[in-house]
Design brief:
306 residues, mainly beta, Lipocalin, four-stranded antiparallel beta sheet
């Protein structure tokens, strides 16, 4: 091997550095189009797109609370009400024109996720003292309260989302930071996938099934609607691997609950948001503009990728 003189070595090193600089500049340009790379994804680039929102209709407003959960039904859409004043929370069945078809009253508190299946509403509570899923029939009769599995029997933690599929309820288990598949009849856990999120969007909420994948609502830590950066992450329904990341266009609705209808993602805007101003006057926040909160509060809206 020929002897490499010091000045030749320095020249070669400078060339390598220049090449790395060009590579870094190229990578930075590509990074603007892709999400941060997580260790579990290796060197794979994650597709990154944007979405716009379109308001479809408003949820009930007279003395009503926040729409904070969604579930599909043959007749239309179930909407879960969230309140902060201690009053009973409703599940509203609405058609796709916004007509109220039925109201079921539940004993859930601070509802933040729901499912509909087997003729029951399954409302997910989200408080320190009241947790679990409240199984309620169509006559507003409480059938059972189910704690989220893999935790204390009397308090399995809170939830931020759920959906029904083939006799199973998929649950966002906040304490586990995971999504559980639970048998609706035995309430036994069958499967678990991790909730992987981009580091700049640590908040998570509603979920929806999409042909073997799961969409989950995500967002940043913010103190007002203007600071919010809502989005969606598409997870592999078996591994939890991030498949795609969606950013909402500025001025969009603020997503909470989530479902999919005829291939279109549907969400609800609660008006208020963790970290934003909160009032016990639910009508003020949910159905009119309040400083620092979403101008689309109380809305059901569609999400279109652009």
């Amino acid at each position: 091997m020929p002897y490499l003189r010091k000045r030749d070595f320095l020249a070669a090193s400078a060339g390598i550095a220049a090449g790395l600089g060009r590579f870094a500049a190229s990578a930075q340009t590509e990074h603007e189009k892709a999400a941060p790379i997580h260790a579990e994804h290796g060197d794979r680039r994650i597709p990154h797109r944007r979405a716009k929102t379109t308001v479809l209709f408003k949820t009930p407003s007279a003395n009503a609370g926040w729409p904070n959960a969604l579930a599909l039904a043959p007749e239309g859409l179930w909407v879960g009400e969230q309140r902060h004043d201690g009053r009973p929370e409703a599940a509203w069945l609405m058609d796709w024109n916004g007509k109220l078809l039925k109201t079921v009253m539940t004993q859930s508190k601070d509802t933040s996720g729901m499912a509909y299946g087997d003729g029951y509403i399954w409302m997910g509570a989200n408080t320190d003292k009241v947790n679990g899923f409240f199984q309620t029939d169509m006559n507003s009769k409480l059938v059972a309260v189910h704690q989220i599995p893999l935790g204390p029997k009397d308090n399995g933690g809170s939830t931020h989302g759920a959906f029904w599929k083939d006799g199973k309820i998929w649950i966002v288990a906040n304490r586990l930071r995971a999504i559980l598949r639970v048998d609706a009849k035995t309430w036994e856990p069958e499967y678990q996938i991790p909730i992987n999120l981009p580091p700049d969007r640590p908040r998570f909420h509603g979920i929806a099934w999409d042909n073997g994948a799961i969409w989950i609502v995500v967002g940043n830590d913010s103190k007002s609607y203007e600071e919010g950066r809502p989005g969606l992450v598409k997870l592999d329904g078996t591994s939890g691997e991030i498949l795609e990341i969606i950013d909402f266009l500025p001025g969009s609705c603020d997503p909470h609950g989530l479902t999919m209808h005829n291939g279109v993602l549907i969400s609800c805007d609660a008006g208020e948001h963790p970290g934003w101003p909160v009032s016990t006057n639910t009508v003020e926040i949910s159905h009119s503009r309040s400083e620092g909160n979403s101008p689309y509060g109380g809305s059901i809206f569609r999400i279109d990728l652009v």
